[in-house]
Design goal:
Lambda Exonuclease, Chain A, PD-(D/E)XK nuclease-like domain-containing protein, Put_RecE_PDDEXK-like_dom, five-stranded mixed β-sheet, alpha+beta, globular, PDDEXK-like_dom_sf, single chain, 10 helices
Length: 263
């Protein structure tokens, strides 16, 4: 049985393999399910983000949150084994992107709030939970989570690179791309974490930090838990799709012929 305190090791080939192998439902799974049901062209979809943009976003998160995985010995001596799409390294980026990445990193680290919680938080923390209304086993990987010494407060921070140029535009993108669903899913993952790790926690906060990908590289902050109705609407969204997930899994199980179960 996997301990809830396990910090999943970073695979030398693909640091996300251990997480993806967990047979649990993630917020990303719900996004894919929504796309399949509503049609890829009817909702904003990550499938249509240029691959170059995806690689840059992954590189940004890797360099900021998992710097120990950048430039490994394996990457240097066995470059053909590294898939740039899943393991972005600074060497896979164009010179202009490398400079852009460095500027974004400097901007984040100069900000007092970000610098403080980069130092104090657990990064890329995997949380396993059971959603109480459906009984579905879920998983979440949080960019940063800070828990106060007496565990009375928890703060989740999620980093987003953004094309928004104003605070209002970044807030609008939080609705457009279902960030309300993500925030509610992540906070509730802590509330219902297997092993009751955050059972004594009284207050949960969720903050999105957006950083402009172009000059002047401004930072935007959205405290999701302070916006009236934001978390509640996101919770309705993820529970709706979890129920759909539950119903479809039950239908698939019932449709399996009895003879195949004994094979």
């Amino acid at each position: 049985m996997i301990s809830q305190r396990t910090i999943y090791p970073q695979s030398l080939i693909n640091p996300g393999d251990d997480y993806r192998a967990l047979a649990r439902v993630s917020n990303s799974d719900l996004t894919r399910m929504k796309e399949e049901h509503l049609g890829y062209w009817s909702v904003p979809s990550a499938r249509f983000i240029p691959e170059k943009t995806k690689v840059f976003g992954r590189a940004f998160h890797q360099h900021l949150l998992e710097p120990e995985t950048v430039g490994t010995v394996l990457a240097q001596f066995l470059p053909d084994m590294i898939d740039p799409a899943t393991r972005p390294d600074v060497n896979t980026l164009a010179p202009a992107q490398t400079k852009q990445l460095q500027t974004l990193m400097q901007t984040i680290r100069k900000d007092g709030f970000c610098r403080r919680y980069l130092r104090l938080s657990e990064r890329e923390r995997v949380v396993l939970s059971t959603e109480p209304t459906t009984g579905i086993a879920c998983k979440a990987r949080l960019d940063m989570v800070y828990t106060s010494p007496k565990r009375r407060n928890a703060l989740v921070i999620d980093l987003k690179t953004t094309s928004a140029r104003t605070q209002a535009q970044f807030l609008e993108s939080c609705y457009t791309y279902d960030y309300d669903r993500q925030a509610a899913f992540y906070v509730d993952s802590l509330r219902h974490a297997d092993g009751n790790e955050w059972s004594a926690t009284k207050q949960f906060r969720f903050v999105f930090i957006g950083i402009m990908k172009q000059s002047p590289y401004r930072l935007f902050a959205v405290d999701a838990t302070s916006i009236p109705g934001f978390m509640e609407y996101g919770r309705k969204k993820y529970r709706f799709w979890l129920r759909k997930w539950h119903d479809e899994q039950a239908t698939e199980t019932l449709s399996v012929p009895a003879w195949s179960m004994s094979a």
